[in-house]
Amino acid sequence: GTTDDIILQTQGLTKDFKGFTAVSEVDLAVRRGSIHALIGPNGAGKTTCFNLLTKFLIPTRGTITYKGEDITRVKPADIARRGLVRSFQISAVFPHLTVLENVRIALQRKRGDSFDFWNSEHVLKELDGEAARLVEAVGLAEFSRHQAVELSYGRKRALEIATTLALDPEMMLLDEPMAGMGHEDVDRIAELIRRVSADRTILMVEHNLSVVASLSDRITVLARGKVLAEGDYATVSKDPRVIEAYIGA
Ligand code: ADP
C-alpha cells in the first residue's frame, strides 16, 4: 500500500532516561484498520513506547505522526481529541456505578459538559439509548444494572472497552488487554477486540502470544529498546533473533 494507509508512524523514536536508552531509534508504521501488536521480553521498551505515543513522556529524539500530522509536541489531552485513545491503564471505571451509568458518563464526557445541554431531557434519553447500544456491543447487556465492582475481571475489561468506545476513538491503544485473565475471559475479550477492530485501528501490547497470533495482522518485536523484527506472526515467531531474545530474557 501507500503511506496513506499508515495512520500512526514513528521515525527514530528515542527515549533516554539519564543515559539509559529505553527506546532506541524505533520506526513503527501502523496500518489503518489493522490490529498491530507490540511484543517483546520484559524491559524491551513497550510501555515506554506507549507512553511516548500518548505523550505521557516526551521523546528525547524522533517524531510521531498521526493521520499525516506531526504530533510529537502535542499535549496528551489533545491526542485523545484527535481520536487516539489509550485504554486500560487510564480508563476510569467507577466501581459503585452500574455498567450503564459508567458508559453514560463516558458518553457525557465525550459530548462536553454545558449545564443547559445536560438539562435537556431529550439529550439524556438519547444518551441512554447510545449507552445501552454500547453495553450490548461489548456483551454486557444482561449486566447493565450491575455495579461495576460486581463484575468478573474479564467483564470489567469489557466495560473499560465500552467506556473507551464511548469516546469514539479512531485508534485504540490497548495495554495488555488480557493480563490476569482466565481462558473464558481471554476468549471473550479477543472476540470483542476483533469486533471493534472492524472500523478502527488497534495497537496493543500483549504478553499472551496465542492471543497475539490469532488477533494481529502485524507484529513489531522490541528488544532492548530496538525493533528486532516485524511482520506477521508466522514470520516473526520463526525469526532466530526473536527466539533468542525471548529465551535470553
Ligand atoms: P516493557 O514495557 O517492554 O517491559 P519498559 O518500557 O517498561 O519495558 O522499560 C524499558 C526499560 O526502561 C527498562 O529497563 C526500564 O527499567 C527502563 N525504564 C522505564 N521507565 C523508566 C524511568 N522512568 N526511569 C528509568 N528507567 C526507566
UniProtKB/TrEMBL annotation:
<dbReference type="GO" id="GO:0005524">
    <property type="term" value="F:ATP binding"/>
</dbReference>
<protein>
    <submittedName>
        <fullName>ABC transporter ATP-binding protein</fullName>
    </submittedName>
</protein>
<dbReference type="InterPro" id="IPR027417">
    <property type="entry name" value="P-loop_NTPase"/>
</dbReference>
<keyword id="KW-0067">ATP-binding</keyword>
<dbReference type="InterPro" id="IPR003593">
    <property type="entry name" value="AAA+_ATPase"/>
</dbReference>
<dbReference type="InterPro" id="IPR003439">
    <property type="entry name" value="ABC_transporter-like_ATP-bd"/>
</dbReference>
<dbReference type="InterPro" id="IPR032823">
    <property type="entry name" value="BCA_ABC_TP_C"/>
</dbReference>
<dbReference type="InterPro" id="IPR051120">
    <property type="entry name" value="ABC_AA/LPS_Transport"/>
</dbReference>
<keyword id="KW-0547">Nucleotide-binding</keyword>
<keyword id="KW-0813">Transport</keyword>
<dbReference type="GO" id="GO:0005886">
    <property type="term" value="C:plasma membrane"/>
</dbReference>
<dbReference type="GO" id="GO:0016887">
    <property type="term" value="F:ATP hydrolysis activity"/>
</dbReference>
<dbReference type="Pfam" id="PF12399">
    <property type="entry name" value="BCA_ABC_TP_C"/>
</dbReference>
<dbReference type="Pfam" id="PF00005">
    <property type="entry name" value="ABC_tran"/>
</dbReference>
<feature type="domain" description="ABC transporter">
    <location>
        <begin position="8"/>
        <end position="249"/>
    </location>
</feature>
